[in-house]
């Protein structure tokens, strides 16, 4: 089959950018992204996109109106599709069995039912969302139950993009992973999807596997990445006790080509909508199969991350003479990482909430995430101020929670001059030069290295 019509259900952080790049690279294919959320779809039709992602607007502008469309008309679009990508959210369940650990597959299930109901031909259903291993089996059952006359071939094609670098990750992926059934229809569908990606991805980077390997690999990739962050963060705690320096340790181990350099930056902990959710899901699946030791092993990655966040707040309080009550503390950064406006699972949320509980007067600054921060901190007495200099005026302490380039380039002399003394700075991302700030007059507390204090 030559694919002419792609439909993607879910116009979020994955569906929007992924489909924009497919449309950009495949002008001969129509790509329509559908969503129940009208506001989101409307925003995709303007230049004020619903998500902030560098270079995204440029790509959207190339294809929008040509072969890239955004719509709330789910029925009509499924009816004309050759391929339906499902890119809806799969958050951690908050209720019932598996609450707090398992993935909530309600939205995925609803998509399968809509596809079965509205399809007008045989089609390929692509799991783009991150899903528990063996979800395709459940989808096949839903899709082929009841009345439908059509054949639905389910493929797994997990997305590996990271926010902030999504466009480059999509245009130049390390690999594209496609899993399917090992029978004739499965292999045919895999070939169709390979053909789409071949428009811009070289063959050696397109990896095809069985369905279950593909589904599982996505959870495992995120677990491995998060594990590296937790590993280095665990060592940062030890560095703070021993005068070892985490940056030096990180460099020393990373020069071993077996270890490598990436994902070894100590931090206030990892955030984002994926790492915690996917590890908890992995843990849940392991327990389901009775693999309790395996579950405990991965669970520790999340436990360590929670510890790193709490440890950061504990250090602030202990350093500031055991009380932050009525002291002004400014958080520089609220997004879970730089170059995104996304705050899902951002360590900043926990840190700010704990500081508010301690009755600090908290000010939050961020170049892109204040709208989201307003929502996350709703009901709390926190001041949101985009200008970092204003936000730091009169502060007793500044904590850097997101590694925005703008925070590396700030005039810290000016900030120091306008702060209460003693002035504290807690660098949760190790982006400032501790010695330089100490010389300005700050008491400096990086992650995983000696404090410079007077
Ligand atoms: P998101 O919340 O930004 O977007 C999901 C969208 O799906 C929402 O706009 C929602 O309205 C829509 N939706 C839900 N149910 C629907 C339905 N029945 N019909 C139509 N629309 C529906 O989520 P996201 O961050 O794009 O993540 C989507 C999936 O991709 C998740 O499984 C996630 O784990 C995975 N993933 C995310 C990232 C990332 O960086 N955010 C990276 C790789 C994989
Ligand atoms: C992650 C995966 O990288 C991506 O492949 C997957 O598709 C979705 O989940 P994302 O969450 O967008 O992407 O960002 P990522 O760059 O992985 O960072 C996740 C968190 O780890 C951020 O809070 C980041 O600040 C933190 N991190 C990352 C560190 O603390 N130290 C590091 O060395 C790297």
TrEMBL record:
Family assignment from sequence similarity: Belongs to the UDP-glucose/GDP-mannose dehydrogenase family.
Main enzyme class: oxidoreductase
Pathway annotation: Nucleotide-sugar biosynthesis; UDP-alpha-D-glucuronate biosynthesis; UDP-alpha-D-glucuronate from UDP-alpha-D-glucose: step 1/1
Protein name per the record: UDP-glucose 6-dehydrogenase
Pfam families: UDPG_MGDP_dh, UDPG_MGDP_dh_C, UDPG_MGDP_dh_N
Annotated ranges, domain UDP-glucose/GDP-mannose dehydrogenase C-terminal: 330-434
Origin superkingdom: Bacteria
Catalytic activity from the UniProt record: UDP-alpha-D-glucose + 2 NAD(+) + H2O = UDP-alpha-D-glucuronate + 2 NADH + 3 H(+)
Gene3D superfamilies the record matches: Cytochrome c1, transmembrane anchor, C-terminal, NAD(P)-binding Rossmann-like Domain
The enzyme's E.C. designation: 1.1.1.22
Native organism: Lentisphaera profundi
Keywords assigned by UniProt, alphabetized: NAD, Oxidoreductase
